[in-house]
UniProtKB/TrEMBL annotation:
Alphabetic keyword roster: Glycosidase, Hydrolase, Signal
Chain ranges of the GH26 domain: 27-393
SUPFAM superfamilies per record: (Trans)glycosidases
GO biological process: substituted mannan metabolic process
Protein name as catalogued: GH26 domain-containing protein
Family the entry assigns: Belongs to the glycosyl hydrolase 26 family.
Signal peptide: 1-19
GO MF entries: mannan endo-1,4-beta-mannosidase activity
InterPro entries, sorted: GH (IPR017853), GH26_dom (IPR022790), Glyco_hydro_26 (IPR000805)
Length: 400
């Protein structure tokens, strides 16, 4: 017997086992994971995604979309795809990016929020349509604080948020309440199916920006969570959803906010057995948000992901406070050109923008331009038309 060959085979099998969190994932979910890894290792392709691109938008609103009170900038109609449209199985035709470029983003971001009925109906329907178009789906969660029942943002919560994470972990006085929420998350995942009833794969990006101080699941705020508690919470959620509730259509993403170095990034890392995607959220917001810092962080994430056989990604980015209004070529100058600086930083699977969202009183939160916006031509000509960026119309089959 050739023991060298046997050893290689064993090592290979162990590598495959470690590489994906859920060994019992659906076939489509396993293939998606492999496709994402291939995309991440390919220095010629980066997918562009946007949060809720078919649910929220800033331009082109019309009936049956919800448009009342969403008018801005001298008659431009923002819009919302409502649950009534989802219940009627209406098409999700509108998309700010598509109205500029002719193509949807390659990735659709959804959010579980508080798992309310109307939100679930809408996210399931637009998610199914995106999946049937071949787009990739990522799901985040901005869930209210389990202990207080108030906002995910600690500054907006006047309740007692102290030791929130400790109190929802096993042994905590709100653990059973938290399990009920996890049961709802599992029900969402297990009922997220295509027209044939098969589970739709998704990247589950929970506890995002956990190194920041703004969420109840964060650090250095009045919740007084510890790094160890956050690691335990992440691990517990994965094990509960996967092992107890039979969720097998999730890939699991870890996505801190800005970090100083690799050690800082890994201080809340739950371990290779619990993570499929190593991501980072990076928003330009001031003098400290430099291109050099963005490049350094992307490079760090890529190197850490490749060392572990994982997928690397920029899981959220953009310019705060509608910076796109003042910097029309932002998506080329501050994102694409930075990623092109060296081969390593081109080895990410995707970059995702947040949702364009009009909230009334003439105000819209913008992360990408819309048709007629001053930045439209720059976005189309310099970002969309670049050979590196991948949109929905460029995608090959990610699931089969």
């Amino acid at each position: 017997m050739n023991f060298g060959v046997v050893l290689v085979v064993i090592v290979a099998l162990v590598t495959v086992t470690i590489a994906q969190v859920d060994q019992y994932a659906t076939q489509e979910t396993k293939i998606l994971y492999q496709r994402l890894k291939q995309m991440a290792r390919d220095e010629t392709k980066i997918m562009f995604g946007q949060q809720q691109f078919s649910v929220l938008g800033a331009e082109g609103g019309h009936s049956p979309y919800l448009t009342k009170t969403l008018v801005h900038d001298n008659g431009i109609h923002g819009w919302i795809f409502g649950d009534k449209q989802a219940r009627q199985h209406s098409p999700d035709d509108l998309c700010d990016v598509k109205r500029m470029t002719g193509s949807n983003p390659a990735m659709l971001g959804l959010d579980m929020h508080d798992l309310d009925y109307k939100g679930n109906i809408t996210s399931h329907w637009v998610g199914r349509l995106a999946y049937e178009r071949g787009e990739v789906i990522t799901v985040s969660m901005h869930h209210s604080n389990t202990v207080t029942g108030n906002s995910p943002w600690v500054k907006k919560d006047n309740g007692n948020v102290v030791k929130t994470v400790q109190r929802i972990l096993p042994g905590g006085d709100h653990h059973e309440n938290f399990k009920q929420i996890l049961d709802q998350m599992a029900a969402w995942a297990n009922s997220f199916t295509d027209s044939n009833g098969k589970p739709i794969p998704a990247i589950f990006r929970f506890l995002h920006e956990l190194n920041g101080g703004w969420f109840w699941w964060g650090l250095h705020n009045k919740a007084q969570n510890t790094e160890h508690e956050l690691i335990e919470l992440y691990r517990y959620m994965v094990k509960y959803l996967r092992d107890q509730k039979g969720v097998h259509n999730f890939l699991y993403a870890y996505s801190p906010d800005k970090f100083s170095d690799k050690t800082d990034y890994l201080k809340t890392y739950p371990g290779d057995d619990y993570v499929d995607v190593l991501g980072m959220d990076y928003y330009y917001s001031g003098s400290s948000s430099t291109k050099a810092n963005f490049q350094r962080m992307v490079k760090d994430v890529v190197e850490m992901a490749e060392e572990r056989g994982k997928v690397s990604a920029v899981t959220e980015t953009g310019y705060m406070n509608n910076g796109i209004d003042k910097i029309p070529n932002f998506w080329q100058d501050d994102i694409l050109d930075v990623l092109k600086t060296e081969p390593t930083t081109k080895r990410i699977a995707y970059v995702l923008a947040w949702a364009n969202h009009c909230s009334g009183n003439g105000h819209c939160q913008l992360w990408v331009p819309f048709k007629g916006h001053p930045a439209e031509n720059d976005f189309v000509n310099n970002f969309y038309n670049d050979s590196l960026t991948v949109f929905s119309s460029d995608l090959t089959d990610m699931y089969h």
